[in-house]
Amino acid sequence: MPEESKKKKNLLVYNLLFIAVCAGIFLFLWNAPPETTAHLPHDEKHNQYLEMDKKEAEKHCGTCHGEDEGKMPLPKEHPPTYRCLFCHKRT
Ligand code: HEC
Ligand code: HEC
After folding, report:
1. Helices (H), 1-91
2. Would you state the pLDDT for residue 26?
3. Does residue 40 belong to any structural domain of this protein?
4. Residue 25 sits in which domain range?
5. Would 37 be classed as within a structural domain?
6. Please, what is the average pLDDT of the chain?
């Protein structure tokens, strides 16, 4: 095969590889499971935190949610709890 068309063939192979990799990444992201973490509820207990500065709001969560007696316990496998609103998004 002449040198010139060999180069063209290589270029084609690289382009196809590139497209295949892009498609792979796209499918991977497309199939990612939907976000399942519960959002901050919309009710009279939580609505006041929708407008508040996040760090300010998070100081209040512990008055009702937590391990202490009389509070709503978090699920057993709950991840570390600092910055509640990073995970429990406000919508
Ligand atoms: C005045 C008490 C109180 C405060 C303060 C409070 N919560 Fe709650 N929260 C509750 C109660 C009661 C429930 C369960 C019933 C409900 O959904 O309202 C609940 C439920 C939740 C749920 C579960 C929603 C679901 O779909 O299961 C999340 C997440 C949550 N709160 C996050 C927070 C965060 C984050 C904060 C701080 C910004 C916070 N809460 C502050 C009382 C409170
Ligand atoms: C690193 C991420 C993360 C942080 C930070 C976090 N949570 Fe969670 N939380 C989760 C996950 C994941 C679950 C279990 C899945 C779900 O939401 O149902 C959960 C569950 C909960 C539930 C029970 C929801 C239900 O549907 O039963 C409550 C209430 C809750 N978290 C409150 C809080 C509070 C209050 C804080 C801050 C003190 C906090 N979380 C911080 C990730 C987080």
Report:
1. 3-31, 48-51, 54-61, 84-87
2. 93
3. no
4. 1-32
5. no
6. 91
Q: Whose CA is nearest to atom 14 of ligand 1?
A: 72
- Specify if 57 maps to a domain: yes
CA distance 42 to 39: 9
Taking the CB of residue 25, how many other CB atoms lie within 10 A of it? 10
Residue 26 shares a structural domain with residue 53: no
- Count: domains in the chain: 2
Percent of the chain past pLDDT 70, that is, above it, reads 99
Q: Is 87 in the pocket of ligand 2 (CB under 6 A)?
A: yes
Task: Give nearest CA residue, ligand 2 atom 34.
Answer: 84
For the chain, what is the largest distance between any 2 Cα atoms, rounded to a whole number of angstroms? 82
